[in-house]
Structures are given as structure tokens and as C-alpha cells.
Amino acid sequence: MSKIIVRGGQRLSGTVKVSGAKNSVLPILAASLLANEGESVIHDVPLLDDVINIQKVIGSLGAKISYKSEMMYIDASQLTSFEAPYDLVRKMRASFLVMGPLLARLGSARISLPGGCAIGTRPIDQHLKGFEAMGAEINLGQGYIEAKTNGKLQGAKIYLDVASVGATENIMMAAALAEGTTTIENAAKEPEIVDLANYLNAMGAKVRGAGTGMIRIEGVESLRGVAHTVIPDRVEAGTYIIAAAITGGDVYVEGAISDHLAPVISKLQEMGVEIEEGDNGLHVRANHPLKSVDVKTLPYPGFPTDMQSQMMALLMVSEGTSIVTETVFENRFMHVEEFAKLQGQIKVEGRSAIISGNTPLVGAKVCATDLRAGAALICAALKAEGETEISGIYHVDRGYVNITEKLASLGANIKREEVITTEVTAAEEAAANVIKEITEEAVPVLTPAVAAQSESVPPLAPAMSADSDSGSFKRDKDVAAVLNVQPTWA
Ligand SMILES: CC(=O)N[C@H]1[C@@H](OP(=O)(O)OP(=O)(O)OC[C@H]2O[C@@H](n3ccc(=O)[nH]c3=O)[C@H](O)[C@@H]2O)O[C@H](CO)[C@@H](O)[C@@H]1O
Ligand SMILES: C=C(OP(=O)(O)O)C(=O)O
């Protein structure tokens, strides 16, 4: 376990380079499973905990996968298993993205229910609805989802009830090798969807319309491994922009793409932050006081939920009152309690948080309750008076490459310390309880503190064999209901 210690008050200046996007590289690595010939070489791969984890998942399926100097090499010509086991999948949401490729390539997939940040119920009903429309039979039980097809998947017309990023990606990958044409209506439009479509098309797929609400995929016979460079991480870039702004700094965020960050840039400019387009990045300058603004998270091209907590950190020290409304995930305000320990003044009312600005933040011991909450606490700590100690850093390691080194290079007084403890903080317990409430019927639960320490050796995935066809998987309506939980505020 690690903690990050920040002594606030340093104004950031200099250049910081953005790494490849976590949310692009994860589906792209999963899509590599679709190639039955040739090696894929993925460039600008950020070596994050999530990437290491999906590398293990892909390796456990029999593909050859290795990493060197920000490049991932994948040869999926021989797959030996269609099962992604609990020990690997529980750690992150995106591991469920191997379901579509496995189903399309092998006609079978058995995947544990996915983990990820405890920011909401995060059902997967839209993924399953898509697979079923393409002719897959889905069974649920013992915390696993098993999908099977009789022959090839069939192209279908699929309307997503919510514009889910993961469901759009999973269905797009499955449809790439299906027979006939698939349309995804109300598809997610995120830049990571476009990146995945570009990769699939380079592999030989026929995907059109990615980046719009209607994606059309004409199935092809086979796909091959190719080289591809992952887009820069817009959330990492946004986090450094906020870090610069909160310290009244002057920072060049190299690699940041303004189009991908349009709503974040607009809101920051409304607050008085200067953001200028450079040759290959964004130049950020801020002079306090900054003005308050209201923010509402929405699917792309709206304000990203993954930037909500970092924005809230900045609003705490800006002038006036702001309202932040979270519409994507129903439990994404867990950082508010942690901000209160830094003396932030925030009141939560349903889906909105009301932030009283101009608060002098004071350092304290806090805990990252999820990935972006951890990043937001680091931003707040950069402005707080005195020392802030942030635990729960394993969340941050899922999404940020070398965050302490990058911020230190901009002049931040920040360091990382390894700690050996079995203590579970109240915040970690709360985060674990959320996962528990959501999944107690479906998957066993480990508290994050225990989970982070127990690097258990994953069991060997079963080789493909006839007995995988056993009737031990019965559709369990109760579990299905759990998977389809509606947000409490909907
Ligand atoms: C690895 C990755 O790319 N993660 C991103 C992805 O997560 P992820 O793909 O999990 O997020 P989704 O877009 O699927 O979720 C959006 C909303 O749809 C709901 N939903 C989703 C699927 C489903 O089958 N049924 C359903 O109801 C979710 O509960 C949520 O309320 O998009 C989120 C929203 O931009 C980001 O915060 C995550 O960083
Ligand atoms: C919520 C996030 O990630 P995931 O979907 O992998 O949990 C995130 O990147 O902020």
C-alpha cells in the first residue's frame, strides 16, 4: 500500500507530457483478441495497474502478450481458453470487454462479473442485450456470465437504452466478426470509441459512424494484427490542467487534444483560466481569484464525469457558490466527505453538490475513495496549507502513470511512501460496502484494503473443452435483477 504526501502552496510551472489513454488502450487490447493472424503492436501504452491487469486477462486466454518501452505486442492467433476468472476481472470494469471479442472469435465466453470504481451500480444489461440480439445465449450464475452462440453471431439492430461506453465498445467488437450488418443506435460518442473503431478498421473491420449516435458495423470473415497508436488521455490531461489552475500556475500540457476536452476547457475559461492551443498541447495559465461556475456531467460531448471531482476541487477555492450535478453515476460524490477533512464547504442534495467557494483549504489525512477522487484530492492538496496525506493510492495507480513524478517535475512538493498496514479506513470500508450492496448476491467481496494487498495467483483458466458446455449454468433471474439495478435517483 502506498500513500502520497503533498505539502501545498507551490505554484506549478513547466511542461507535463500526457500518457496514452487508459480508456482507449483497455478496449483496444481486448479487441486484439479478434485477430486470428498477425501480431498487433500498440504504441503509447501507459503502464497502469489496469493495463497490467488486462494484460494478465489476455495472457490467461492463451494469447501471447508482452510489453516493452510503452509498446504492447499481442499475438492472439492461438487462444486456449474462453474464461476470464474472478481474481483478474474483479479488479477492474474494463476486463468485461473481452466478452465481445471472445464470443465473436470462439463462440463462447465465461467472464466473472466486473469490478471497477465504487461510483455506482454499473449494470451490464446493455452489453448483454446487444449480445442476445446477435443470437448469443446468456446464462448467469456463481458470479459469472456465460455466453454462447450456435455458429456465428448474427448482425442485428441494437438500440442502447443508455449511451454506454462499454456496451458500445463490446458490441462493436462482437459485431466486427458477425455475419451481416449490425447497427448500434444511441451509441456512445466518446473519443475512445473512435480510437477503437480506427483500430478495428485497420485490422480489416468495416465500422462506420463511430463518434456519432449511430454506428454501423458490417461483419467480416477475419481480422489481422496491426500497429496502432493510442490517443492521449483526456482525463489525465484535464487533471493536470486543473492542477495548474488550482495553484495559479503556468503549465504546458503536452499531448492534450482541445477537441476531446472542449467542455472542460469552456468551463475553465468561464472561470477565468487562460487556455491556449499550442503546437502539440495546451498552455494553461491561471491567476486567482477564479469565478465559480455550475457544472453538469453528461455523456460525451458533455462535461465528463471522470473530471467532476477534480473540477470540484478547483471550485472549492474559487469565488462564489457553484453547483455540480452528477448525472452519469449515482454514487460519485464520495470525495465530498474527504474534501470536508481539508475544510472544504460542500453540501450534497440528491444528485447535486453545492460548493461554497473561496475556502482556505488545510492539509489533513484523507483517503482516495475511487480513481478520480484520488486525483482530485491531490489537486486540492496542492492548494491546501500544510501537509496532506492521501491513502488508497492503489485507486490512483489504475489511471495515472507516475503522477507524483510528473507533478514534482512541475515544482509540486509531493512524494510517495510505501506503508505496510492491515488497517481499513472508514472511507475504504464505505467504498467496499457500496460494492457489497451492489453485488452481494452475485460476487464475493473483498475490502479494497485487503484486495490491494492480496496479490493472489490467478487460477489457470480452463482449456477449451466439451465439458465447458456443461449445464451447470442456469439462468438466475435474481442475479439478472441485480445486474439491472436502476440508479436510486432515476
Ligand atoms: C474503462 C472505461 O472506459 N471507463 C469509462 C466508461 O465506463 P463504462 O463503460 O463502465 O460506463 P458506461 O458508459 O457504460 O456507463 C454510463 C451509465 O450507463 C449505465 N449503464 C451502463 C452499462 C449498462 O449495461 N447499463 C447501464 O445502465 C451506467 O450505470 C452509467 O450510469 O465510461 C464512463 C462514463 O463516461 C467513464 O466514467 C469510465 O471512465
Ligand atoms: C471510472 C473510471 O474507470 P473505470 O470505468 O475503469 O472504473 C475512470 O476512469 O474514472
Automatic annotation (TrEMBL):
UniProt enzyme class: transferase
Compartments in which it is found: Cytoplasm
The encoding gene: murAA
Annotated residues for binding of phosphoenolpyruvate: K22, N23
Purpose of the protein: Cell wall formation. Adds enolpyruvyl to UDP-N-acetylglucosamine.
Residues holding UDP-N-acetyl-alpha-D-glucosamine: R93, R122, P123, I124, D125, Q126, D306, V328
One cellular-component annotation, GO: cytoplasm
CDD domains according to UniProt: UdpNAET
Catalytic activity: phosphoenolpyruvate + UDP-N-acetyl-alpha-D-glucosamine = UDP-N-acetyl-3-O-(1-carboxyvinyl)-alpha-D-glucosamine + phosphate
Protein name: UDP-N-acetylglucosamine 1-carboxyvinyltransferase
Residues annotated with 2-(S-cysteinyl)pyruvic acid O-phosphothioketal modification: C117
Source species of the chain: Paenibacillus abyssi
Active site: C117 (proton donor)
EC number per UniProt: 2.5.1.7
GO MF annotation, one: UDP-N-acetylglucosamine 1-carboxyvinyltransferase activity
Family the entry assigns: Belongs to the EPSP synthase family. MurA subfamily.
Domain (Enolpyruvate transferase) ranges: 6-407
Pfam families according to UniProt: EPSP_synthase (PF00275)
GO terms classed as biological process: cell division; cell wall organization; peptidoglycan biosynthetic process; regulation of cell shape; UDP-N-acetylgalactosamine biosynthetic process
Pathway: Cell wall biogenesis; peptidoglycan biosynthesis
Keywords from the UniProt entry: Cell cycle, Cell division, Cell shape, Cell wall biogenesis/degradation, Cytoplasm, Peptidoglycan synthesis, Pyruvate, Transferase
